[in-house]
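SEQUENCE WITH STRUCTURE:
===
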Amino acid sequence: MREAPFPAGQQKELFPEIEDVWAAVGRFVAAGLQRGQVRGLTAHGLGPLLADSLESRSLTLPDRVLREQHRARVAVLAAPALLARIREACDGPGMVFKGPEVAARYPQQARGFVDVDLLVPDAEGAQRALLARGFVEEAEPGAAWAHHLTPLRWPDSPLKVEVHTGPHWPEGLAPPRNEELFGSAVEASVGVRGVLAPAPSHHALVVAAHAWSHKPLGRIRDLLDVVAVAREADPAESRRLARAWGMAHVWRTTLDAFEALLTGGKTWPLRLWAGQLAGLRTQTVVEQHLERLLSPFWTFPPGAAARSAATSLLDEVRPAADESWREKLQRTSAALRRPFTAVTKHDTLLGEAASRRRRER
């Protein structure tokens, strides 16, 4: 793993209570293992780190952990060849973020990923060029993407390629312009000539925004990804950029939650709707509903947060776009009967009703 210079003073500015981030993560993983939470560690994306920890102590890897380690190693090996093929097919600058770039900052690159995210000035043109060179579309029935085009795959690669029109950003916040990201881009870690990556302060915020867009404080690895990149950036510059990009609340909430996890503390989000992080478990039904109602207050300034929460409340009480009031009441009744059931189990019990589409805002 490439270790960038990271003065102790900068780490203390990020996490005053943590002497060494990766050592603290190792202790957290070891504690989860001691409690028998292998399933929880892998569910939160920490399987490859757990595998390396077990191997360093000459302990047997459970099958689930071994599979996670294998997938991570295959992805790390496959990414450079795939990016080289992409670079040959596409003219102009190309910027890779998340996936292999974040993995390069983990100890022994112990982080799995299934796709390569690529930002280019002309997404449609790059998509056409890749298709012309033998890449094939890997369409998912009924799926739609606001921030990238249809995923592609090279026939013999285990990784998908997602050509982005821009970074994935939390709804209600304006993403930075692509020109700003390219203007301060640096050479990527993957070792492919001509492939760029966002500057560390930019990249850390892009990773934080992407994770928050999918699910605020969803998995521990989401937080760890942000920190792995943020360690290479000047904390003051990251804070300034977070304010400029409207990400100040998300940024601070992410860092505070990470520090609390590793020091045994609790932030309000961890108490109210993200308890699955400290518990190394799946979010419950009631936590999921609280997340939808309360996470806006950790995303936006007070006025915008109140408006977003009100809209979320309306979404909670009215039927989804593709269901009747009767179906909505049945779904609500099921949720009230099992508020502390894991969301995954609850959705399995609901069947097709679990995939109801939320209304467009």
